[in-house]
Write a structure and sequence with these properties.
heterodimer; A: 276 residues; MetI-like fold; 15 helices; B: MetI-like fold
Chain lengths: 276, 296
């Protein structure tokens, strides 16, 4: 049939266009990787040529000068501890708001949700002042607590929605078996929360890992990956061979994380976005 | 409602204890700073000076006479319009292409989504390099034609759009994923029925797919608009707000005023204006979303 032949041809052209576009889309990443293997003078000659050899000196410089491994572990510790805190406080609050039969529960939810209208930059200056007053600046525990405060509204909302979808009969049977409310939460409700906790973890992990401004204000030292790259950039201005090596080495961990949990991350982001 | 659950669901003390940790943190690090911001916006607070005078709405009036603020406002709005419109068109086009049975579509999805997991600051550095040395190397290959001599980040009228292109590159994959989820929610029966009735691919898109995913479009527009109005990392990494104030977005201007110039009172006033702009736009878009949903 000529119709379907034409259709097939059309589809093949379309696929080719998409593939070419995809390759162009990766161009910035390809350019960064290529130039990370060049010496400075090689980039000056051309920034779009292939590297003449596998020159690894740039990576060595970045790892040593930016103290990469220390910074990397700081970022991991910061992200993991913030997420653990966010999950614990949000799961508790989300459960309580979903089950508490008082009007005040909805009011509390609204107070938390109103934060979503407020841009970070509106509280940025006074948050730094308040954090200083409370001794929460210049250290990781302070930063973790602030992440807990700023990231909990969305997470509480997600946990609350999840708890509302659990049939209350489960908890009622727990009460008949003699559980008090703390046992009820701990033994019956929280174990059911694993999937929603994973969603909350994924949404927050990418954000905290890549966040620049809050750690920049609170820590004021190059202690996480984005911060250390910013300082490094300021120090080695125009030394693109080093900056590109910095890009590659600091992007690898998050890309590996993404590939290992791809399905999960995309599901989490979609459900997070839709519920918002 | 059984007596058991009524009893437990009015156990006020237990529920207060559950909510307390989150609420205390939220109160200390969000509500307190927010109230302080609003309070300071009516004062002339300078740096950490203890001598504070209440000056009413003076800072807000000053803002609308401050040329740099007005520049930052227009720059931010231009950037938001550009990124929201072009970005959503790109994302929707990609989603439509990848919602078909094109071979290797999961690889393609990954390619387009990947920039989204990268740090904005570091992505900004890479694009600064691309707009500078890489572009220059390309021009050399082409023999430096006059009409292609573009200073992407140095020209005051195009620098903000260059940053916008970077932002689209970084964020298009995210909206694409949400669009794909929306398209997959459309039942295939409807689309097959339309094709059997002789509808063309264009008709199926404009008459069926587009109306059915319009709530998703509005949602993506809301998400993109609020994040664009807050843009900070890209201009900081790529131009530091320059040349002049050509890429100083509102968020960057608040930062400069508050931390570099120590004009705390004035900076908080501008941050309150930013809050009001975002709140009004979000509420308006949400109302619009509700209206559309009621119509359908």
């Amino acid at each position: 049939m000529p119709e379907s032949k034409k259709n097939k041809f059309y589809k093949a052209i379309l696929a080719a266009v998409v593939y070419i576009f995809a390759i162009c889309y990766m161009f910035p990443v390809i350019i960064a990787v290529l130039n990370s293997f060049k010496e400075k003078r090689e980039i000056l000659i051309s920034a779009v040529s292939l590297p003449s050899s596998l020159y690894l000196e740039n990576y060595k410089t970045v790892i040593l000068k930016a103290d990469f491994f220390k910074v990397f572990f700081n970022s991991i510790a910061l992200t993991v501890s913030s997420i653990v805190l966010i999950i614990i406080i949000s799961a508790m609050a989300g459960y309580a708001i979903a089950r508490w039969r008082r009007k005040v529960a909805n009011v509390i939810m609204l107070i938390f949700l109103s934060a979503m209208f407020v841009p970070f930059h509106t509280v940025m200056i006074t948050l730094l002042k308040t954090a200083k007053d409370l001794g929460a600046t210049g250290n990781f525990p302070g930063l973790v607590l602030i992440y807990g405060a700023l990231m909990c509204p969305t997470s509480i909302f997600l946990f609350r929605g999840f708890v509302k979808s659990i049939p209350i009969e489960l908890e009622e049977s727990g009460i008949i078996d003699g559980c008090n409310i703390f046992n009820l939460a701990l033994r019956i409700v929280f174990p059911l929360m694993k999937p929603i906790s994973a969603t909350v973890a994924v949404i927050n992990a990418l954000w905290i890992w890549n966040d620049f401004l809050l750690p920049y204000l609170i820590l004021a030292k190059p202690l996480t990956i984005p911060l250390s790259q910013m300082y490094f950039y300021g120090k080695y201005n125009q030394q693109w061979h080093l900056i590109m090596a910095g890009f590659v080495i600091s992007t690898i961990p998050i890309v590996v994380f993404f590939f290992s949990m791809q399905k999960f991350i995309i599901k989490g982001l979609v459900s997070g976005a839709i519920k918002n | 409602m059984s007596a058991y659950s009524t009893k437990i669901r009015k156990n006020d003390l237990a529920f207060i204890l559950f909510i307390l940790p989150a609420f205390v943190l939220f109160f200390l690090f969000f509500i307190v700073p927010f109230i302080r911001s609003i309070y300071y916006s009516f004062t002339d607070l300078y740096g950490y000076n203890r001598n504070v005078n209440f000056i009413g709405l003076s800072s807000f009036l000053e803002a609308f006479r401050d040329e740099n603020f007005l520049t930052s406002l227009t720059v931010t709005l231009k950037y938001a319009l550009f990124v929201v419109i072009i970005g959503n068109i790109v994302s929707l086009a990609l989603a439509l292409l990848l919602d078909t049975n094109i071979p290797g579509k999961s690889v393609l999805r990954t390619v387009f989504f990947l920039p989204n997991v990268m740090s904005l600051i570091i992505v900004g550095f890479v694009w600064t390099f691309i707009y500078g040395d890489v572009y220059r190397s390309f021009m050399e290959i082409l023999g430096n034609p006059e009409y292609l001599q573009i200073s992407w980040l140095g020209n005051t009228s195009i620098a903000i759009y260059s940053i916008g292109i970077t932002a689209i590159w970084q964020s298009a994959g995210y909206a694409m994923i949400i669009y794909i989820a929306g398209l997959q929610n459309i039942s295939t029966d409807i689309i097959e029925a339309a094709y059997i009735d002789g509808a063309s691919a264009r008709e199926v898109f404009f008459r069926i797919k587009l109306p059915l995913i319009s709530p998703v479009i509005v949602m993506n527009v809301i998400l993109a608009t609020t994040s664009c109005l807050k843009v900070f990392d890209f201009p900081l990494a790529m131009t530091s707000g320059g040349p002049g104030y050509a890429t100083t977005t509102m968020a960057l201007y608040i930062y400069t005023l508050g931390f570099n110039m120590q004009r705390t009172g004035y900076a908080t006033a501008i941050s309150v204006i930013l809050f009001l702009i975002i709140a009004v736009i979000t509420v308006f878009l949400m109302k619009f979303l509700k209206m559309r949903e009621e119509k359908l």
